[in-house]
Specification:
Elements lengths: L3 E7 L12 E7 L8 E9 L3 H5 L20 E8 L9 E4 L6 E4 L5 E2 L17 H14 L6 E5 L6 H10 L3 E6 L2 H10 L4 E4 L5 H8 L4 E5 L4 H8 L2 E9 L19 H4 L3 E4 L9 H13 L7 E5 L4 H9 L6 E5 L2
């Protein structure tokens, strides 16, 4: 009897905020394997802000998801059938099968992972996966922080921002996070070890950011955009660096927030560089080595927010875009 595969498809292209009705959930039969292929049962699905852009039609750094196709996304899973000599049944693997319970691969883009007591499978979608690599590449390669400098990161309690701040501390910097709400700010300071955290929801962002950065800002790791970017621009030091990772506050806006103080880039000779982590694969071995050592030693801490079951993926995705998660947002599939 054929194995049933549950899949979440893109049903509509959202205008403004994503709705659960923009997705449809279907079941299909898993086809028989061809020579060279492996069948993977997905255990965890990663939910990430970039997926919102893939729901749109139009020019971007990656192709849009077509209507009635499976939503894109990173996964970790276990090989349950193999016709490929490089993979055996029960191998744990990192893949990009998207929002579905099973995936078939010809092995391209599929990598084995080493799951241990210190490093669970889910970590390969977060702190040791794309978010962790994004944090390392953006901060270390583009931000180039120096000991004693002030580093600020927005979405500081999220999967990327939390790693950015801890890496900056490990490199001797004074680190300030920006996050939404007292709970997240307390987590960032008390558990992750940031020097300060600004609650942008408290109603006095500019004043609080000024107080938290008495020596200005040398590196700003940008995940959010909008009013937070505006506030940061007024605090930048000469020759500051901004690794531009994301603009999550603007992804669902029909009228994006204009940046009023754009001239700060010229006045302070700021380096602003947008980046896509997949274009920096040459740095992955170095990044993974440092991240892996820090995680295994307990020096790099992380949290996961886990939704249960593929049916809850749309709701969890919308919640993540609204900032309801703490740390990495995952869906446990099996």
């Amino acid at each position: 009897m054929a194995i049933k595969n549950k899949q979440v498809l893109l049903a509509n292209r959202p205008h403004g905020w994503v709705q659960e009705s923009d997705f449809s959930i279907v079941e299909t039969d898993v086809p028989a394997l061809k020579d060279g292929e492996v069948l993977v049962k997905n255990l965890y699905l990663s939910l990430d802000p970039y997926m919102r852009g893939r729901m749109n039609e139009g020019k971007s750094y990656a192709a849009s998801t077509n209507l009635n196709e499976v939503m894109v996304g990173g996964t970790v899973g276990v090989v349950v059938e193999s016709k490929n000599p490089d993979f055996q049944v029960d191998d744990m693997v990192l893949g990009y099968f998207g929002w579905q319970t099973y995936g078939i691969s010809d092995s391209k883009g599929l990598g084995k992972i080493n799951v241990t007591e210190q490093i669970p499978a889910s970590a390969y979608l977060g702190v040791l996966g794309m978010p962790g690599l994004t944090a390392w590449v953006g901060l270390i390669s583009i931000g180039q922080p120096k000991a004693g400098e002030t580093v600020v990161v927005s979405a500081a309690s999220g999967a990327v921002g939390s790693v950015v701040g801890q890496l900056a501390k490990a490199h001797g910097c004074y680190v300030v996070g920006i996050a939404g709400g007292k709970t997240k700010c307390d987590y960032v300071v008390n558990e992750l070890g940031f020097d300060a955290c600004v609650d942008y929801k408290a109603g006095h962002l500019v004043e609080d950011l000024t107080a938290a950065t008495p020596n200005g800002i040398d590196v700003y790791f940008e995940n959010v955009g909008g009013e937070i970017l505006e506030a940061v621009l007024d605090r930048l030091n000469a020759h500051a660096r901004i690794p531009l990772c994301g603009l999550v506050s603007q992804y669902n806006e029909t009228n994006p927030h204009p940046v009023r103080n754009f001239g700060a880039f010229l006045i302070n000779r700021v380096k602003l560089q947008g980046f896509i982590v997949g274009e920096h694969a040459d740095l992955f071995p170095q990044a993974f080595q440092e991240l892996g050592q820090l995680v295994a030693s307990g020096k790099l801490k992380y949290r996961e927010t886990v939704a249960e079951g593929l049916d809850n993926a749309p709701k969890a995705f919308i919640g993540m875009l609204k900032g309801e998660n703490l740390g990495k947002q995952l869906v446990k599939l099996a």
